[in-house]
Structures are given as structure tokens and as C-alpha cells.
Amino acid sequence: MCQHHPQCPPADCSDREAAHIVAHHPEQGWSLLCNGVLLFEDTGELLPDGRIIAPHRPLESGRVTTAA
Questions:
Q1: What integer is the mean pLDDT of 11-30?
Q2: DSSP labels for 18-50?
Q3: Whole-model pTM?
Q4: Which residues lie below 8 Å from residue 53, measured CB to CB, with a gap of 6+?
């Protein structure tokens, strides 16, 4: 699917999220990457073969702030 040079990482590589965005729908919370991956705003992914990658947001540092 990718026509870029150098080519974007394929959907089965760990760096698949580095592929170029070909369709972006922030109002719906998803983007289509040129390698066929659907990337959701919660960091979940749907791969072209139907596999689901669970959201993988980084954990917060544990810093808590309270309002005065």
C-alpha cells in the first residue's frame, strides 16, 4: 500500500505507527496509515489482517496534583 521512499514500516513491525497518515478523522477518533493500520486516539490499533492491538498509552509518572 505504501508508495513512499523509503517505504513506511509494514503493519506487522513494531514501529508500524511511524507510517504516513493517509486519512485522518479526529472527530471520529481514528486515522488510517499507509500500511493499512487503523490507529485510534486511545492508542489502540486494528491491523489489516483483523488483529487488534490494545491501547498502550504510557503510564503516568505517579505525580498527583490537588486543587487548592
A1: 94
A2: GSPEEEEETTTTEEEETTS-EEETTS-EE-TTS
A3: 0.77
A4: 44, 45, 46, 47
